[in-house]
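Late entry, written up from scratch paper. The run itself happened at the end of the previous shift, but nothing got recorded in the book at the time, so transcribing now.
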Amino acid sequence: MTLTSRAELTIRTRNAGAVLGALSPEMSERVPRTTVEVVAGEGEVTIKVEAEDLASMRAALNSYIRWADVAEETAEEAKR
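Output as recorded:
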């Protein structure tokens, strides 16, 4: 696979472990024509995406952003 597009998104969050845990199962479900890596640091989660084309890049980013948002909202609700 020849990868042509790259994006890196860092999300700053108090729930980095929860977001990483929620995204981890998605790592085994491939988004076509992409490679995705998710790494947690102190107070942040970084999503790195490489894709063959912009449509694949957009699909992968949209999916991971949506999953991260749901994980963040769920973690915040669980604290209440």
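The mean pLDDT is 89.
(Scratch paper discarded after transcription.)
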